[in-house]
Task: structure prediction
Amino acid sequence: MTDGRAGPRTGNAAATPILLHTCCAPCAVYCLDRLEAEGFETTSFFYNPNIHPYKEFERRLDTLRSYSSMRGFDLIVDDTYDLDQFLRKVVGTGSGRCAECYDMRLRRAAREASERGFGGFTTTLLVSPYQNHDLIAQVGQKAAADHDVEFVYIDFRPGFREGQSKARELGLYRQPYCGCVYSEMERYYRGKHREVQE
Result:
């Protein structure tokens, strides 16, 4: 594991420290704005072994590190590439793969929040209109209970377009698929297959 400026910070006594599981920089843009507006002092946490291939994983992490330096927020990085473990969990699960993916990442975030003394955590997954919010909430709450921290559910979706627009203006790398090899297939292969059929 590698760390940026690991938190929680104590500069603003009025702010509530929170750990933000972060899938990528563009999704973090609006989430960080919203959390700051709601009185949270946010530390970002990167753990995403679902991202495939490895070069894509590196590019998303490098972009998040650059954005952290640009904006000045704390960043904790677990750059362990647990692709093997991820694949063992999701292969053969079909549409259930997202639940396994959420569980793997949010359990890791809950553990990090607990070990570092954060009272709660949330995730940038909640900004995406393409993710299953009910399932994320369910998985997050279970992970939180198991690690004696709070899962803070916030529906960030109203700011999705705003955040993506800001990310574009900042020149942040914006990935064209969720992250896993299955979402990459859905984005490219199935789209191409449909074009051929039509």
User: Anything to note?
Assistant: Confidence is low (pLDDT under 50) at residues 2-13, 193-198. The first strand starts at residue 2 and ends at 3. The beta strands are 2-3, 16-21, 40-46, 74-77, 120-123, 150-151. DSSP finds seven helices and six strands in the chain.
